[in-house]
Every structure is written in C-alpha cells, then in structure tokens.
Design a protein that fits this description.
heterotrimer, A alpha+beta, B alpha+beta, C alpha+beta, A: alpha+beta, 4-stranded antiparallel beta sheet, 2 helices, elongated, B: alpha+beta, 34% strand
C-alpha cells in the first residue's frame, strides 16, 4: 500500500505543482519606426489559443490572432505590434497561445502637443 | 562520493550556459535626430525536472527502490508537462507581456528605432533564467 | 480482451493514425510589422521545403519570398507583413513552410490640376 500511496502523492503533487507550467517561445516586437510625435495611441490586444492532444494539425491560431488584432482597429494604422507565442503544458494536452498587442493610431485625430 | 561527483559535474556543465532561441532586428533610422540607446530585460525562473531527477538519482544511487521511485516520479511529472518547450518551463506565461509599453515608458515621445528582440535562456543546475531582452534607440 | 479494452485501444490507435496522417504541426516563429490603414488588397506567399527524416541541406527555400511579394504588389508598398514559419512531420517526412501575408498599399495618384492659363482679352471687349 505504501508504494502506491507514495506514487499517488507524487502524482497529486505533480498535477498541482507542475500542471500549470508554461513555455514562452518568442516575443516579437516591431512597428514603432514611424509614429508621429504626440500621436494619440489606443492600446488593443487579441489572444487566441489552440488545445492540442498529443499532436496538432495546424497553426491557424496565429493567423486568427493577427486577424482579430487587425479587426480591432478598422479605421487606423496599428503600430507597436507585439506577438507572444507560448505553450501552456499539461497532462497529455497542451495549449498553444498567441497573444498580440499593439496601438491603434487614427491619424486624423488631434495630436497631443 | 558519487553524489558529490554528480553534483560537481552538473555545476560545471550547467553553470552559466547561455542559449539563444530567437533574435529579431528592425530597421534603424538615424536621420530623425540623436539616438539614445535603451535596454529592457524581463525574466522568469524555469525549472528542469530532468536535472532535479538526475540529482535525486545520484543522491539515491545506493538504493534501488529510491532510484525506481525517482524514475517513476520523473515520468509522472513529465506526463504533466507535455508540449513543445523553449528553454525550461516556467510557472507563468505573462512575464514577457507589455514589453512595448515598457519601451514607450523609456521613450515617452514614442520615437523609437532599431528595435532588437532576443529570447534566451541562462541554464543552471535544476533552474534556469528565461529572459526576453528588448534593445533599441530613442530618437531625441 | 474485453470489448471495453479493445475499443479503447481502437480509439487511441485512430487518434494516433489521424495525427500522423494530418501531420504534426508546430509553429516555430512569427514576425510582425505595423499594419496599415489601407487593407483592401491582401496578398500571401508560401514556400515549402520537404525532406526525408527532416534532413535538410540548405535553408534558402524562403529566399524567393520577398521577390514573390514584390511581384504581387508591383506598384505599391507591401505593408502589415505577418510571417509564419512552421514545421510539419508526416511520420518520416518533414515539411518546413514559410507563409508571409501582407497588404499591398498602392499610393493614390496625385490629382492632376489644370495648369493656369493667362486670360487674353477677347476682341471687342472693353
């Protein structure tokens, strides 16, 4: 009984302590080169995820994140784009995440002096 | 003696091992004014269960039951950490968020050029430093 | 073997087979740039590189991507570039794929204004 109890304790500890581990693969940044001085910037973000059991068949979650971010600024230019690609690890299933953020710049808005 | 040997080897092999996973460069515009460099670095602590298990196995090398228990424990933990990894797993995934907000804090005018983003790992025994570094220039 | 165990094995085997046939895809890296206001003309280029056992001998399969993008946007600026590098394993064969999406922004032609013509007085006018 004791070895089984020890294994059960290790399994429970593993699930509690390590069931919420993550791995950040990449943090890409770009697009701050031509921001007008004093421009009004509105922060926008989008996040998509894809749960994977053992193996995944597509990476469309990245395209969806980009499309969602683009849709949040229909009338302006999006500058300062940041993309974070990470994976939340788990028991047999892991979750790929793509979080994108940026600043919506509507160029006919009054500039802050 | 075996534990000391294994621990020493891990220390020697793992001390300050630097791995670069990804680097990205942007355009640099020197024509808009004087450039002042800045650097922002964020990090989190990664944990290597494999290294921990290796140390535990070295410590328990005289006991077959203990070695078996360590192997089983490592296998159970590995099952709860399935998925692609870069560096070692951390306990949060938002430690590298809001990097550009930090950049804009350093350059309040919003005039930034020459952004470089680097994702790296500093590997030590059992633990690691998972790091994202953003460098660039504020246009003054 | 009871039906329950054999059924479970069949389900697991189906999941594994479908994963291998569909490919095991992983996202290697992404790249982003600022996104323009004009998004009427999206363009996309994909280049693939297949190798048995994932043994590749060069990395220049994506070198033609910028030229392809320029060909699709001959008179404009390719902006809002989103690049994606992914790898797919089909059992023993690896496919590396680079997909680049963007928007072709063509600058509006300048509005032609009629040149100023010097007015000559008409005959007979005061």
């Amino acid at each position: 009984m004791k070895p089984h109890a020890a294994l059960a304790a290790i399994a429970a500890f593993a699930l509690l302590a390590f069931g919420c581990t993550h791995s950040v693969h990449q943090s890409a940044v770009a697009g701050l080169e031509d921001v007008p001085r004093g421009a009004q910037l509105r922060y926008i973000e989008s996040e998509t995820k894809q749960s994977v059991f053992l193996a995944s068949g597509s990476t469309e979650f990245a395209d969806r994140a980009m499309a969602d971010l683009t849709a949040r600024c229909p009338d302006g230019r999006i500058v300062g784009v940041e993309a974070r690609h990470s994976t939340s690890l788990g028991f047999l299933v892991h979750t790929n995440r793509m979080k994108m953020s940026g600043y919506c710049l509507v160029e006919n808005a009054e500039a802050v002096p | 003696m075996k534990f000391r040997t294994a621990a020493s080897m891990l220390v020697l092999l793992g001390t300050g091992c630097a791995h670069m996973h990804h680097v990205q460069f942007s355009e640099i515009d020197s024509s808009r004014g004087r450039l002042e460099p800045f650097e922002i670095q964020v990090n989190d602590t990664g944990v290597s269960v494999h290294d921990g298990a290796a140390l535990a196995r070295a410590a328990a090398s005289t006991s077959a039951n203990a070695t078996r228990a360590v192997n089983t424990g490592e296998a159970i933990v590995a099952l709860t950490q399935m998925g692609p990894t870069t560096g070692e797993p951390t306990f949060s995934d938002d430690w590298a968020d809001q990097m550009l907000a930090k950049v804009l804090e350093r350059c309040p005018s919003g005039q930034v050029t020459g952004l470089v983003a680097r994702r790296e790992t500093m590997k030590y025994p059992v633990i690691s430093g998972e790091i994202v570094t953003i460098k660039g220039y504020c246009v003054l | 073997m009871s039906f329950g165990r054999s059924g479970l094995l069949l389900v697991l085997a189906s999941i594994f087979l479908s994963s291998f046939l569909g490919g095991c895809t992983s996202l290697q890296s992404v790249g982003v740039t600022s996104i323009p206001k004009e998004r009427g003309r999206p363009i996309e280029v994909t280049e693939n590189n297949v190798a048995f056992l994932g043994i590749h001998f060069d990395n220049d399969f994506a070198d033609d991507v910028p030229e392809e993008l320029r060909r699709k946007c001959p008179n404009g600026k390719v902006s809002g570039v989103f690049s994606k590098y992914e790898s797919t394993w089909y059992v023993l064969v690896q496919n590396r794929s680079v997909t680049v999406k963007g928007y072709c922004v063509v600058p509006e032609p300048p509005v032609a204004t009629a040149p100023a013509v010097a007015m000559t007085p008409a005959e007979g006018s005061p």
